[in-house]
Amino acid sequence: MESKFESNGTAVTEFILLGLVETAGLQPVIFVVFLFAYLLTVGGNLSILAAVFVEPKLHTPMYFFLGNLSMLDVGCISVTVPSMLGRLLSHKRTVPYGACLTQLFFFHQLAGVDCFLLTAMAYDRFLAICRPLTYSTRMNHTVQRILVATSWACAFSNALTHTVAISTLHFCGPNVINHFYCDLPQLFQLSCSSTQLNELLLFGLGVLMAGAPVILIVTSYIHVAAAVLRIQSSEGRKKAFSTCSSHLTVVGIFYGTGVFSYMRLGSVEASDKDKGIGILNTVISPMLNPLIYSLRNPDVQGALRRVLTGKRDLA
């Protein structure tokens, strides 16, 4: 398929997304697998959200943030997977320039909120374990809403900055993206103009959006670990650590894949590996989050059973 150009013959107006596989025989398999993953992710996260609403035991700050995280996971996978499934069905691999930038904006918006929300959850655990006497006042409903609103505002600024910056680049061909969604590293490779400022911007904002939250999360958990180790009973230590283990697992998956995605810019050879990292980022991580948070949490498990069976707790 050939590129479309503006009347001056220089500006690309659409991109071609190669997707995960180019072999026609494997495409139906990919469609079924990712459709199942999408339905499982949306169903799992909406179930967690419903459990948080219906279970009085889960009406706490930690689960308020978890409910928001579940909504973000649904949004994150919905930005990338449905459009990929649509292209597999229609056998049309082109995506308009504007649609590509729109996808990029929403992906970075939602991923950015994830960064700050995971930090807010670490701060919540710090207050609950290290400052239990003032926890209810320091993490009241107003503070929770401010933390979520600030997360959205900071992520919006980051996503808008990257989208505006990428729109200043000149794309004159080729227009083939070896990926299944539009993202910054792949677009940088196609630019006919210098991407040095864009890459510096990505690195600088990456330090603010990911580096600062990681420092805050690590600092919070250093204090949490110190406080837990001072607990005399082994049962008390086990209970305190169990409330943090799920969050730490999600943080590890989220930031681990993010670092690999954006700290290896300009490597065309790595594009196939980037697809795998992209799957981890946009599909596997949102799909695992409900499982991680419900696996060792009896309150969430009980609430999920009541949501799925429609039964109310008589106690």
TrEMBL record:
Report the main location listed first in the record.
membrane
Q: Spell out the GO cellular component terms annotated for this protein, sorted alphabetically and separated by semicolons.
A: plasma membrane
- Report which superkingdom the organism of origin falls in: Eukaryota
Q: What are the subcellular locations of this protein? A: Cell membrane
Limits of the G-protein coupled receptors family 1 profile domain:
44-293
Q: Which residues cross the membrane?
A: 29-54, 63-85, 105-126, 146-171, 200-229
The UniProt entry, under Gene3D superfamilies, shows: Rhodopsin 7-helix transmembrane proteins (1.20.1070.10)
Assigned protein family: Belongs to the G-protein coupled receptor 1 family.
Q: What is this protein called?
A: Olfactory receptor
What is the species listed in this Swiss-Prot or TrEMBL entry? Mus spicilegus (Mound-building mouse)
